[in-house]
Amino acid sequence: MAKLYIEGGKRLTGKIKLQGAKNSALPLLAASMLVDGTTLLHNCPNLSDVSAAIRILDSLGYKCTQTGNDVFVKASMPLCDCVSPELMQEMRSSVVFLGAILARCGSATVTTPGGCELGPRPIDIHLKAIQELGFSVEENGGYICCKRVNMPKEVDITLDFASVGATENVILASCISGSTVYLHNAAKEPEIKDLADFLNKAGAKIYGAGTDTVTIIGVEKINSVEHTVIPDRIVAATYMSAAAVTGGDIEITNINCEHMRRIIASYSEMGCDIVFCENSLRIRAPEKLRRIKATRSTVYPGFPTDAGPLLVASLVKASGTSTFVETIFENRFNYIDELRRLGADIKVYNRVAIVEGVSKLNAANLCCTDLRGGAAEVVLALAADGITSIDKIHHIERGYEKIEETLSGVFANIKKE
Ligand code: UD1
Known about the structure:
The protein is α/β, with parallel strands linked by helices. It has helices at 22-31, 48-59, 85-90, 96-105, 124-132, 164-175, 190-201, 233-245, 261-269, 308-315, 335-341, 371-381, 394-397, 403-408; strands at 4-7, 13-17, 35-42, 62-67, 70-75, 107-111, 135-140, 143-148, 154-158, 180-184, 205-207, 213-217, 222-228, 249-253, 273-277, 280-284, 289-290, 295-296, 318-319, 321-325, 345-349, 352-356, 365-367, 387-391, 413-416. It has two domains: 4-18 and 232-416, Enolpyruvate transferase domain (UDP-n-acetylglucosamine1-carboxyvinyl-transferase, Chain), CATH 3.65.10; 22-228, Enolpyruvate transferase domain (UDP-n-acetylglucosamine1-carboxyvinyl-transferase, Chain, Alpha-beta prism). It contains 14 helices and 25 strands. Uridine-diphosphate-N-acetylglucosamine binds at residues 23, 26, 93, 121-126, 161, 163-166, 187, 191, 305-306, 328-329.
């Protein structure tokens, strides 16, 4: 099993070219199923989750070719309408294939994604919406079987919560259909807009993506499309956090700063000097980071839950006491025990983390608990004296393209062994 070894204490400086967004690439790969012809995705990150999505497409009869950051998808065989439990379990986000398979086949069999490191991950909101779109849903022994029973001409759906995955599933399931769908309380995350932009380029009629009401006018078919995946705002937050805790000066290029507004606000509040234009951002850390006002994760454009662990890691190095409240996932603080091993002073009360800034951290042997928690461990290890080892880095590799190379490029002492 590979581990990361990080010798902390080095000030990070230089340029980082940001990778494409995992959370866009996965629904876009699912969306490629709807295309009659070929899909060419650029800026698609090389990640284990992307490989898992490609294996699902292969298993459904699609031909995928990955060359660097380009992925080419072509429908080449009759389709089947089920994803094996093994493939479903490889990543929780495989549930986004449900909407795409339903659109293509009119039926689908998948398994429930089950819980994950962040707590229970129900898909009740997805399934309720799918029923409202005219599909029957039967759950049996861990399998979910859905079948088209009617095709409503017009349907209004209001999600109980603005779920990112459920919004994507509704868009995918209805984009090539005979229905017009008005989706209310839709998620507004940039990845939703990217999905709609991709589908519209291919000939779909989706309006209002990025707002809380999305209208999908079903079309008969959509055609070959070429698209560039948006930059990864959470990976950007990771490198901002790495600059902040090391007193660094990093320029991130290939970024979309419009997506970063809420994150920029927190790092500015900490005293970082942030200068940005449309697609580049420079962050210069102050000598001492400042505490920030209580911050809570919430849906876009609020502070993203995925950037929470990275913010908490930065606050460990700030002066005074800061509070972070996690409102989206029940069980997102597992990584905090690992940060404590480095000397972080963090108390957790249910979904509230109270971070007392410390001036000195010492290396320790750590273990990744989950994707973003693992990234937070890497960030804080960069600020600890001595050599920290981090185990179970497969969690990190689900979402970061060669994190050790990127950080070495800005003078971190980090290696993978
Ligand atoms: C997506 C992101 C993930 C991010 C999350 C919130 C991808 C691949 N993943 O996950 O990185 O942390 O958005 O921004 O894009 N819920 C239900 N029932 C449902 C669906 C969701 O109770 O049917 C709950 C979840 O358990 C969670 C909350 O709603 O507590 C948010 O989930 P959702 O927005 O659906 O997140 P994902 O799409 O799974």
